[in-house]
Recover the amino acids of this structure.
């Protein structure tokens, strides 16, 4: 096993209306190649910030983030962001057709996307959608297109930020299956932020619980949900179960 | 126009004050202050111009132009408060626009190289440039607030800073130019431009006044386009940090 992502004592603060907010406090953890790590925790606990540190959309104030054995600061930024793809919650689309959105990663490199149909098929979208306006697609279709667009860069690591939370249960299930297939077929390492505990339990190899900017518990997913070690984890899981 | 006549014309302001009072518009104080302020500013400028026009030394004229660019920059920079080096970026933009436009006019001898022409025309160029810079900054800020996630998306896909901001920059440049272009469309049909009216009242041949006004229209369009483009391309790198992350928290 090789380590794809490593966080070493990472801290991050934000300035929110003159007030300093410690969003991450000494986060450490490793993600091995081909693994799916699910990250759960309350809203505002710093889960999305962890993702953004991996492709330098944010920089840590303290500590180090290593990708494929190299500090993120030593990567060529564009190369890093192609290697570490991210899919966002709302699957944002640029104004234009599906094809224009799909081919965006290639156009940014001054190239053309040779086989858009291949990507459409791979994510379960029909070819006739290519000429439709991307913003007109349904939530599920947009999320698939967003994943296809990220795959155009052929990333080794995929960061997923609540990608199914805005979808109905059928679309969420289909997108989840698609992501698992990407992981299986491409050996893509996945860091997956989700608020859905049952999803985290279903898809994860490892699960991290983040509360108030700290990793409270990181364990193999099965163990995490069946026999959590930390009291805080037990309380968090219990609270969610009661809420459900 | 005699001073007595000018004094009578202030009656318009007094009359507006009473109307505001009668209809409880709450604008009385503003109307009076604006009237007095305009009087003082224009009288002072009139006397300064009178002095500068009398100088033979071109340095006096350049100093006057620098002061005009400086004041215009202070005004426009308010819209970009929080952006690094915004004052100097606007100062540089307005200066370049002034130099290129005046260089064209003087170089091709379209207007004579006298303080009367140079300072009056510069006032129009610099003032117009200042308005366009303010409009551009306003629009850019609004566009960034609305379309921040598009910028982040392009960056996340491996796009460069320029690629990520370009559509927003283009839209902001276009939007800031719309009032200038729209304003010139109805020129002469709805209202006669101030400079042309002034020349006609002062006894100039209307056709001659129209020629000058056309020169001003073309020049203002050019200066507006140039201002928005130069400022746009000078400012966009300041919206990102060294790690190519959008950083507009201070704006």
């Amino acid at each position: 096993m090789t380590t794809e992502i490593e966080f070493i004592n990472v801290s991050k603060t934000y300035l929110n209306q003159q007030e300093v907010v410690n969003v991450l406090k000494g986060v450490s953890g490793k993600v091995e190649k081909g693994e799916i790590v699910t990250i759960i925790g309350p809203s505002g606990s710093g889960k999305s910030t962890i993702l953004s540190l991996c492709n330098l959309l944010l920089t840590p104030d303290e500590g180090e983030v290593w990708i494929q054995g190299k500090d993120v600061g030593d990567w060529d930024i564009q190369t890093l962001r192609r290697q570490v793809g991210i899919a966002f919650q709302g699957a944002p689309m640029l104004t234009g057709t599906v094809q224009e959105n799909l081919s965006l990663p290639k156009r940014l490199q001054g190239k053309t996307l040779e086989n858009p149909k291949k990507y459409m098929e791979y994510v379960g979208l029909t070819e006739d959608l290519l000429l439709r306006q991307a913003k007109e697609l349904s939530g599920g279709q947009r999320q698939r297109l967003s994943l296809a667009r990220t795959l155009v860069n052929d990333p080794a690591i995929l960061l997923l930020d609540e990608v199914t939370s805005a979808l109905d249960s059928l679309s969420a299930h289909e997108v989840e299956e698609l992501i698992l297939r990407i992981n299986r077929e491409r050996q893509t390492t996945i860091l997956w932020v989700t608020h859905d505990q049952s999803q985290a339990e279903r898809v994860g190899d490892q699960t991290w619980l983040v509360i108030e900017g700290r990793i409270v518990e990181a364990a193999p997913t099965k163990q995490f949900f069946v026999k959590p070690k930390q009291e805080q984890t037990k309380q968090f899981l219990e609270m969610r179960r009661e809420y459900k | 126009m005699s001073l007595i006549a000018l004094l009578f014309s202030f009656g318009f302001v007094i009359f507006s004050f009473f109307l505001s009072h009668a209809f409880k518009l709450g604008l009385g104080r503003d109307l009076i202050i604006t009237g007095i302020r305009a009087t003082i500013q224009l009288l002072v400028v009139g006397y300064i111009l009178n002095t500068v026009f009398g100088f033979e030394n071109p340095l006096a004229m350049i100093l006057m132009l620098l002061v005009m660019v400086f004041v215009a920059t202070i005004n426009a920079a308010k819209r970009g408060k929080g952006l690094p080096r915004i004052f100097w970026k606007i100062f540089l933009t307005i200066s370049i626009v002034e130099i290129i436009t005046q260089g064209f006019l003087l170089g091709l001898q379209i207007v004579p190289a006298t303080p009367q022409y140079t300072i009056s025309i510069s006032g129009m160029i610099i003032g117009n440039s200042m308005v366009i810079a303010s409009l551009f900054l306003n629009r850019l800020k609004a566009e960034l607030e609305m379309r921040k996630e598009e910028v982040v998306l392009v960056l996340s896909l491996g796009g460069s800073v320029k690629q990520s901001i370009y559509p927003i920059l283009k839209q902001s440049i276009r939007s800031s130019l719309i009032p200038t272009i729209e304003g010139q469309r109805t020129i002469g049909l709805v209202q006669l431009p101030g400079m042309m009216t002034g020349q006609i009242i002062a006894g100039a041949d209307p056709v001659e006044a129209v020629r000058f006004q056309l020169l001003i229209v073309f020049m203002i369009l050019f200066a507006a386009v140039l201002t928005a483009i130069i400022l746009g391309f000078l400012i966009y790198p300041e919206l990102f940090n060294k790690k190519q992350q959008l950083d507009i928290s201070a704006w």
Remarks:
- The radius of gyration of chain A is 18 Å.
- The CA atoms of residues 45 and 212 of chain A lie 5 Å apart.
- Chain A touches chain B through 24 residues (CB under 8 Å).
- Strands of chain A lie at 3-16, 19-32, 36-40, 62-67, 70-71, 84-87, 157-161, 189-193, 206-211, 214-220.
